[in-house]
Specification:
The chain is mainly α. The protein has seven helices and no strands. Helix 4 packs across helix 7. The longest helix is centred in the middle third of the chain and has 33 residues. The protein is elongated, with a radius of gyration of 17 Å.
Length: 117
């Protein structure tokens, strides 16, 4: 969760972070100690994670647009495109981002298939 949050905030400007309220994203975890996670507290933990993920959907959609633009700027360089997908792999694996970047993932796959042949 922290890695995804750091990548999100690194790609957003200060104004966008304030607008999308990313600074308060960890509020659901305020009363939960992750080190004391056990079967009795697991429901509370899952609830906090679900609340965090719902709060981050607008930021993920904003980032999807930025990543889409970034990947298009790279163009027909399969190695560079692959490297950028790996760089942002945690973000690309998020459901909201993954759904937005279907065309870019297909482009990468086609470029890699062409390169391998």
């Amino acid at each position: 969760i922290r890695v995804v949050h750091e990548q999100l905030t690194r790609l957003l400007t200060e104004g966008e972070q304030q607008q999308l309220n990313t600074t308060s994203a960890f509020t659901p975890f305020a009363n939960h100690n992750a080190l004391y996670n056990n079967p009795y507290t697991q429901g509370k933990w899952r609830g906090a994670v679900a609340q965090y993920e719902r709060a981050m959907i607008p930021a993920e959609k904003k980032i999807s647009g930025k990543l889409k633009k970034h990947f298009h700027e790279i163009g027909a360089q399969p190695h560079q495109l692959l490297r950028e997908f790996q760089r942002y792999r945690e973000l690309v694996m998020r459901p909201a981002v993954r759904d937005e970047l279907v065309a870019e993932r297909e482009t990468l796959l086609a470029q890699l298939l062409t390169y391998v042949r």
